[in-house]
Write a structure and sequence with these properties.
By secondary structure, the protein is mainly α. The protein has one domain. Helix 4 runs antiparallel to helix 6. The chain starts with a helix and ends with a helix.
């Protein structure tokens, strides 16, 4: 459980994605729905990926995770409506990106070449740790966002913060794709 919680709390890509998801969500119910969809997605592919030994190249999956940060920031900035006059289903995209985040977790776990003895209980414990870490990170995000939203600077800097998140996502994508190319 500790390793799962540590991975989530220190996983800046996951934290940026969570921040992007809840950035403009104010109701507890909405936050619960989106975070649950993300948890269902990453729990499913993490558990199944490790159990069935399905690994994806770590550089590629981490580049996709970086892209999820870019996508969420662009969505928060209203880019899809401006560019395409279309607003994608944010619940569906949260679930789909959750699947990719889960494959990122399973790929990292598979690199450890763990013993199949006690695999299921250990995976479940790791996943519980991931969820606890996610709740801890989410709590911190919501506390900070709650205070910031009450200030006059929120609307003034919301776009800038999403631009910064998008830039960080592009940096993650570039970093991972460079690693992929150099790994040959």
């Amino acid at each position: 459980m500790y390793l799962g919680a540590k991975h989530m709390v220190t996983g800046y890509d996951h934290i940026l994605f969570l921040l992007g998801i809840v950035f403009f969500l104010y109701k507890t119910k909405d936050i619960g729905v989106y975070v649950s969809l993300f948890a269902i997605g990453h729990s499913t592919t993490m558990l199944l990926g490790v159990y069935f030994n399905i690994g994806i190249n770590a550089y590629i999956i981490d580049a996709i995770i970086g892209f999820s940060v870019v996508y969420t920031a662009l969505d928060n900035m209203g880019a899809f409506w401006v560019w395409f006059k279309y607003q994608p289903n944010t619940r569906l995209t949260t679930l789909v990106f959750g699947f990719f985040h889960g494959f990122g977790l399973s790929t990292k776990i598979l690199e450890y070449e763990i013993s199949p003895d006690g695999l299921v209980p250990n995976l479940l414990a790791f996943n519980v740790g991931v969820e606890l870490g996610q709740l801890l990170a989410l709590s911190g995000i919501l506390i900070v966002m709650g205070y910031w939203r009450r200030t006059q600077t929120f609307w003034r800097y919301a776009y800038s913060l999403n631009t910064t998140m998008m830039t960080a996502g592009f940096a993650l994508v570039g970093y991972q794709l460079t690693g992929f190319i150099l790994s040959f």
